[in-house]
Amino acid sequence: MSDPKIEGYVFKPGFKGMAQDTGSDQTMFKGVHWGKAMMWIFLLSDTFIFSCFLISYMKGRGSTLIEWPNPSEVFALDAFGVPVPLLLIAIMTFVLITSSGTMALAVKYGYEKNRKMCGWLVLATALGGLTFVGMQAFEWSKLIHEGVRPWENPFGAPQFGSFFFMITGFHGTHVSIGVIFLFIYAYKVFAGHYDEEKRGWFTTMKGNYVEIEILGLYWHFVDLVWVFIFAFFYLW
Amino acid sequence: MSEDFNDNKTIQAQSSETISGGSGASPDMDYVRPAEVGDQDLYHGHSFITKWIFCQDAKVIGVQYFLLATFTGIIGLILSWLMRLQLGFPGAAGFMTAEHYYQFVTMHGMIMVVYFLTALFLGGFGNYLIPLMVGARDMVFPYLNMVSFWMFFIAVGVLLASFFVPGGPTGAGWTLYPPQTILEGTPGSGMGILLMCLSLILFVAGFTMGGLNYLITVLQARTRGMTLMRMPLTVWGIFTATVLAMLAFPALLVGALMMSLDKVLGTSFFMPTILKAGEVLEYGGGSPILFQHLFWFFGHPEVYIVALPAFGIISDLISVHSRKNIFGYRMMVWAIVGIGGLSFFVWAHHMYVSGMNPWFGFFFATTTLIIAVPTAMKVYNWILTLWRGNIRMNTVMLWCLGFIVTFVNGGITGIFLGNVTVDVPLSDTYFVIAHFHMVMGIAPLMVIMGAVYHWFPLVAGRFLDEKLGKWHFWTTFLGAYSIYFPMHYLGFIGVPRRYFEMYDSPYVTSATGMNEFISLAAFLVGAAQFILIFNIIKTLKTGKPAGSNPWKACSLEWLTPTVPPEHGNWGDRLPVVHRWAYDYSVPGAKEDFITQTTPPSEVADTGVEKT
Question: What's A192's domain CATH number?
Fold first, then answer.
């Protein structure tokens, strides 16, 4: 799908050539699948959503008069009676980043038409995502048991609870939607929908392994956003 | 025709070479390289429901968007009548309390800006025109496009439902500034504001689906020969506006979500410590200014989301109806793109009186004046397009001329308000009302009207009645000036906006008569819009049949095999494009227009320029 050689079209060198290629007829991104281009632009829009959230968080944290809780203490987990800072978060992050790796491999095997491997790797990615969401639910319930609420917080500024639940909740929703789609796609791969170009239930469009890559783009994006949330909430 | 001529000069033929007159006209010069992707796979509806209701045809979706946006627009119009009734003749409508007045102000503003203008330009004209103008069979994701419309439908439903919940719709002003938006005492501070936020979130979600369609169709699904610099300016305007929307609506979404949480969960994102009747409320520590920044980071690009499609459409209408190529096409394209980029750096000029750092005001005043430069270039280019053109003085052209005058008018008062020192005393007066109604109310509305009269023959296959059209234009044009010119004066004498009644204030003596006059004009202008509806209903049955390409235009939407175009637009073969959309009155040509699909060999001995 991503073969840049277009019949009858020669890419031109240099900056001027790049401008000419960009403005040429039919397509701006040569050989790029429509769905893939769509996902990139959607992710750009989604980036602005998360940026607005994180900038609001910085502003909120900067303007509140009550002291912000210390993340090393709030997010610590007791392991064998010793509070270890960021233990759970480290595992969560590891699982999520690993699932990005399995996703990338799934895309590779998809394009090689290796149905079995692709399906197992998509399934592994889905399970990784599910583990992440489960651990996040655990962390939420731990904080809630300790008295943190969106409107109040025993450790300091109430905005800590507000922003934490809102932003990790919004990200967790993204992960959950991704997990649902990963399970559906795993089924579609195993059932051979992409090999036979079976038409989609809703869209009636022909199936193609490029869909795995498109979902992969979304999944990598969700992971990347997590890196920023991790840095801003747990390390700052 | 063209893939039969497979020689080595592939690039040369499709790039911009001057076709000089005289000898050597051979089919080689007509070569356009073959299609990169196969023909689009389309789902053809086969029942009433799949053809007209849950339809995947962009043209039907465009008309659906148009009708629903018009319906909400009429509600906004009725609200404005009620407001003017109260302002001109206080107490004339017995049921009108101050609370109702604020609710009507709020709903009028939000409906007109988001649910009427945005939906109509991008959802309506975008859906109908983009695939036709770039030579595609449909939008690239027809199913998503259908869902986009139905999300919009639900969003409108939720918005209108807020009229019927306890407390009524929100009355906080369309800017929804916290903290007062969600505090008791503001009308609709309970369910009203929640439904408003929910409706906005749904609208953004639905719009994102549509917007992805518009962008990818323009970027990746143009027909053979349709380079970016051959696209009609309408497509450029809608495309750039969609980019703005994709990047600006996230801020609105986040703002609406945080506001809902402040209301429902009692968080304090936007809520500072508040004393109410001597008691401290539960809220505390939030920043109301944060909401203003989020809102206007959406709000200012929103102005251009409405304006840029209008700029694009008007350029095409003026060019067609003055039989001249658009003056400075490339300049127009770059002005659209430049305005789009700059529009993200001017938002805080809406916040000069919010108490932000004065250096912020300095920065945003500067960027505001800079954005006037590309805008002014566009106005010059429209006038230079008209200059020595073969102008057809029909209804479409009247709306175009009305737009240019009105836009210049509203633009100049914008320069006033962009400067901090002038803005501060004029802030929250009727001067501001007059300014933005001129520049983003009446001016885009005139473009919509011009576009309706222009493209109705394509959509319905019949002309709208010219006589009714001229009545419609002149009442609207003169009436709109009767409304908004006096408002500038009201602003200068300091009459504040959003006041239910002036009571015994010193303004009353000079403002009362003027307010009555404005109200009468507003009733008239509002009523004049029903001329258009009558015109449409009448001509759908009895109008003069238009036939194909009735305006003798060059662009692709008029060149479909059937009028109105069918699903799939182009019959068996996609069109092949050889030139831009503005080859009007070319010296030496048989007719005064050369369509985009005319191959160069057919017009080799004319003075046609490279494009």
Answer: 1.20.120.80
Q: How far is CA B558 from the centre of its chain?
A: 22
Distance from CA of B23 to the nearest CA of A (A): 27
Contact B32 A37 (CB under 8 A): no
Please give the tally of structural domains in chain B.
Answer: 1
Q: Are A91 and A103 within one domain?
A: yes
Is A162's CB within 8 Å of B35's CB?
no
Residues A191 and A174 in one domain: yes
For an interface test with A, which of B3, B200, B204, B216 has the most A Cβ atoms less than 10 Å from its Cβ? Answer: B216
CA distance B258 to B208: 20
Across the interface, do A56 and B294 touch by the CB < 8 Å criterion? yes
- Domain for residue B399, yes or no? yes
| Residue A138 contacts B where some CB pair is shorter than 8 Å | no
Domains contained in chain A, number: 2
- Report yes or no: B56 and B143 within 8 Å, Cβ to Cβ: yes
Instruction: Write down the ipTM of this complex.
Output: 0.94
Note whether A27 and A43 are same-domain residues. no
Classify residue B283: in a domain, yes or no: no
| Three-state DSSP class for residue B443 | helix
Work out the minimum CA distance from B509 to partner chain A, whole angstroms: 46
Q: B19 pLDDT band (50/70/90 cuts)?
A: very low
Q: Which amino acid is at B150?
A: W
Instruction: Provide the pLDDT for residue B41.
Output: 84
Cα angle for residues B89, B95, B99 (degrees, 5° grid):
90
Query: What mean pLDDT, rounded, does chain B reach?
Result: 91
Does the structure show a pLDDT above 60 at B21? no
- Domain span including residue B444: 393-544
Which of B36, B57, B270 should we substitute to test contact with A (largest number of A Cβ atoms within 10 Å)? B36
Write out pLDDT tens, residues B155-207.
999 999 999 999 999 999 999 999 999 998 899 999 999 999 999 999 999 99
Q: What's the domain range around A71?
A: 33-235
Q: State yes or no: pLDDT of B283 exceeds 70.
A: yes
Question: Do the Cβ atoms of A183 and A4 come closer than 8 Å?
Answer: no
Minimum mean pLDDT range among B37-41, B119-123, B336-340, B423-427:
B37-41
pLDDT > 90: what percent of chain B?
A: 79
Question: How wide is the angle at C-alpha A67 spanned by C-alphas A63 and A72, nearest 5°?
Answer: 120
User: A197 to chain B, minimum CA–CA distance in Å?
Assistant: 13
d(CA A144, CA A138): 10
Which pLDDT score, from 0 to 100, does residue B2 have? 36
User: What integer pLDDT is reported at residue A3 of this predicted model?
Assistant: 46
Shortest distance between the Cα of B16 and any Cα of chain A, in A, equals 10
